[in-house]
Design brief:
One of its GO terms (cellular component) is cytoplasm. By secondary structure, the chain is of the alpha/beta class. Helices cover 27% and strands 29% of the residues. It has two domains: 176 residues, Rossmann fold (3-Layer(aba) Sandwich); 182 residues, 3-Layer(aba) Sandwich (Rossmann fold), CATH 3.40.50.150. Helix 4 runs parallel beside helix 5 and helix 7 packs parallel to helix 8. It is globular and about 60 Å long.
Length: 374
């Protein structure tokens, strides 16, 4: 397991979710570059630091014993990684405050360290929420690997915070030094909204939502083939996003009991607001979670899922495979997992390794809808 050695700490760090023979490490050269710069500039024990998008708690664990640290991000898996890595390195969990990205870190902050996220809309919303929360003389430094640093990120930093100066690249990483200056109170363009024809609903989408401006093609295909007449079945929308699959299913199945789960706090917020607007006080469980990891064994009759094929910039089917395993555990014998996926991903073969029967329910030239029976 690679360890991180910086002037602040010697750390043993894990990614989340954990994988056997994990091929990737929980930190990169941008984390190291950023921590080196902070050490060079110096911090005091009373320095109030805000960390944005510290994916697996690398920065928080490094700085937890040296300053007053608050972390904020949109990944529940990232939050779990922070908790585990603090404990793994014998650091007090209480040393780091965590604020989900759908809430506002109060501040004021003397130092803000930002890992540039994949979704620039999330960065924009975070920068908007920083308004009025920087202490006089505050420093703001953003970091990314060069291949993941679009010019638009610097433009957003300049628009909402102040002038930007880029560092030289080091180990293919770059820092952006931002000088805060007075700015008018910004108006956020988020959340966005779009309407569907079938079902005829409008959906709210907070900044970090996948396909925030319109329904993704796979989900559109899935909506036309959702199972009907599920009576009082216990149904989960796994990786729910804005909740569209679970909500559509609930509208057609008034007696079904729904659970909507996503690892994105902004997705959960969107799903909660959409459910409230469309289904009012109908009972539902909507939560941020590590998929169905916390779902009791044999507690579901049906799971609906449009699985992701990436975690941040890392592409692969490890998250989907984990979701399939979680669904199998949570389903009753005879229960069903319904998924939509790109044809080329080969989910049919993967599901056959876990379920007794896998059937193609519908298909388009690009997508397949599969039902897997436990």
């Amino acid at each position: 397991m690679p360890t991180l050695d910086t002037p602040f700490a010697h750390l043993d760090l894990l990614r989340q979710p954990e994988q056997p023979n994990e091929p990737l490490q929980a930190f990169d050269a941008a984390d190291e570059y950023l921590l080196g710069q902070v050490y060079e500039q110096g911090i005091a024990p009373d320095t109030r630091i805000l960390l944005l998008n510290d994916s697996f708690g690398t920065l928080a664990c490094s700085l937890a014993s040296h300053a007053q640290v608050t972390g904020s991000g949109d990944s529940h898996l990232g939050y779990l990684a922070l908790q585990k890595n603090l404990a793994r390195n014998r650091l007090a969990v209480a040393n780091v405050d965590f604020v989900p990205a759908n809430a506002i870190a109060q501040g004021p902050f003397d130092l803000v360290l930002i890992r540039i996220p994949k979704t620039l809309a999330l960065l924009e919303e975070q920068l908007i929420r920083l308004h009025g929360r920087l202490a006089p003389g505050a420093r703001v430094i953003a970091a990314a690997m060069v291949k993941h640093l679009p010019r638009a990120a610097g433009d957003l930093l300049e628009r909402y915070i102040g002038p930007v100066r880029a560092s030289l690249a080091m180990k293919k990483a770059r820092l952006l030094f931002v000088t805060p200056e007075p700015k008018p109170v910004p108006a956020s363009p988020y959340p966005t909204r779009y309407r569907l024809d079938v079902p005829a609903i409008e959906l709210v989408n907070h900044a970090n939502l996948f396909c925030r401006e319109g329904l993704d093609i796979g989900t559109r295909v899935f909506l036309a083939h959702l199972p009907r007449d599920t009576c009082k079945q216990r149904v989960a929308d796994l990786g729910c996003g804005n909740g569209v699959l679970g909500i559509a299913h609930a509208l057609h199945n008034p007696d079904a009991e729904l659970t909507l789960v996503d690892e994105s706090y902004m997705a959960v917020q969107s799903a909660q607001e959409n459910w409230q607007a469309l289904l009012g006080e109908r009972s539902v469980d909507i939560r941020a979670g590590d998929g169905l990891a916390e779902q009791p064994t044999g507690s579901l009759d049906l799971v609906l899922c449009n699985p992701p094929f990436h975690q941040q910039q890392v592409i692969g089917d490890f998250l989907a495979w984990r979701m399939f395993q979680q669904a199998r555990t949570a389903l009753v014998p005879g229960g069903a997992l319904w998924i939509v996926g790109n044809r080329h991903l080969g989910y049919h073969a993967k599901l056959k390794r876990l379920f007794r029967q896998v059937e193609q329910m519908a298909a388009t030239p690009k997508f397949v809808i599969l039902r897997a029976l436990k």
